[in-house]
């Protein structure tokens, strides 16, 4: 049985004797045991990080960027290996696993611009003989806690900017798929990162709480479900840490009567069922405007959904989606589907009997489509995080907009229309952080920022893009007077810069 430890001080170490099973979701078999850290294991990583960070911060930003440049080469060199390890533990298809690595790699590329992003501001002659300037300094030891659904991308979204800014970073990845984060840490060191600057501490709530309470950890980044995001934000803030915590989602796609219905149906199928719906930017609610639009949409969707190919990642590139991550996730999805049926929603595509031949113990869930879902139903209110799309019929554009606005989550949303005025109004008014216009999954690119609103995000600064350089640095502003002033004699009233 493969044993996965922690990555501390440039080596794999076992730590305390606590472990969790890591499954292959396609077969249902336990394929590895991952170490679960105690507070002592975390303490050791923090001590190592504290020792390594000052020299890293003192390395000039261009040299730090060169490590990231080399890391990009290594990611490309090992792309197939990383994707295979990722699919084996997560269950997503190989092309999708490569996308997971690539979307992280793009943020690393953005962070190669660190020398530019870290430049401060300067005001010449803010007063007589006085200059004012600001610098961005690293926080010290930073930490991140990441979810199972993007085990390559989200760790890189955090550690690339943190490290580019001169911090040390401790990653606590999901215990469900820890192999790729460990491989990334090893590759960063192969790229030239000094030991101790990036470490991986595997674990569960015990490790997370140790991070939240450690006095020498300056900031915490979190991505995962909303209840945990709220908990981490509160506890980190109570302990005086900077925190950005990204939570769950229920992304609505509005389909206007004038939309190209084939295009909308294709977009919905990819955005609803890709990665078995286990994406925080998946579309889980379709909102056609008008019954006629709804009927046309459902008619286009059903054959597309029924012909989706479900299978293990080993079955080839034409598989559309794989299993969900655990038996517990599957059980929760099936329970929610039953609640939808019980509440009176119309199950137009029923995947409950789906069985994957030869993989009967795998965590496969067939594709489902509900029509006539209403706001009071649990399947509408909760994030299902599975291959289940709900159609809520709206009678007007305002009603459709109101649905997206009133939902507690505000991660992503989209509108499909040929009317520029409707699209513009929607983008301007909707209270959701990321908006697509005829684009179903509007994940911003590396040089813009990523973040939801409402219960999808706790904190202020977003992930990647310019915000990430703000999150991982503190601003220091210096007011300097040369050469006259002190030598002329002391000043005892507040300076007015006259
Ligand atoms: P999760 O909340 O169960 O776990 C996330 C992390 O928190 C893991 O590292 C886990 O070990 C840790 N954790 C779990 N329970 C904890 C507890 N009680 N106390 C402290 N730490 C705990 O989420 P998940 O199932 O891994 O990921 C899926 C969720 O993540 C979905 O809700 C999805 O929408 C969300 N997500 C959000 C974004 C975003 O950017 N908003 C991106 C990806 C995923």
Automatic annotation (TrEMBL):
PROSITE patterns reported in the protein's UniProt record: ALDEHYDE_DEHYDR_CYS
MF (Gene Ontology): methylmalonate-semialdehyde dehydrogenase (acylating, NAD) activity
Keyword terms, alphabetized: NAD, Oxidoreductase
CDD domains recorded: ALDH_F6_MMSDH (cd07085)
Organism superkingdom: Bacteria
Entry-linked InterPro entries: Ald_DH/histidinol_DH, Ald_DH_C, Ald_DH_CS_CYS, Ald_DH_N, Aldehyde_DH_dom, MeMal-semiAld_DH
Enzyme Commission number, as recorded: 1.2.1.27
Any one Pfam family match given in the protein's UniProt record, by short name: Aldedh
Alphabetical GO biological process terms: L-valine catabolic process; thymine catabolic process
Domain Aldehyde dehydrogenase: 15-478
Gene3D superfamilies (alphabetical): Aldehyde Dehydrogenase, Chain A, domain 1, Aldehyde Dehydrogenase, Chain A, domain 2
Enzyme class name: oxidoreductase
Signal peptide as annotated in the record: none
PANTHER family: MALONATE-SEMIALDEHYDE DEHYDROGENASE
Name of protein: methylmalonate-semialdehyde dehydrogenase (CoA acylating)
Source organism: Jannaschia seohaensis
Lineage, opening ranks: Bacteria, Pseudomonadati, Pseudomonadota, Alphaproteobacteria, Rhodobacterales
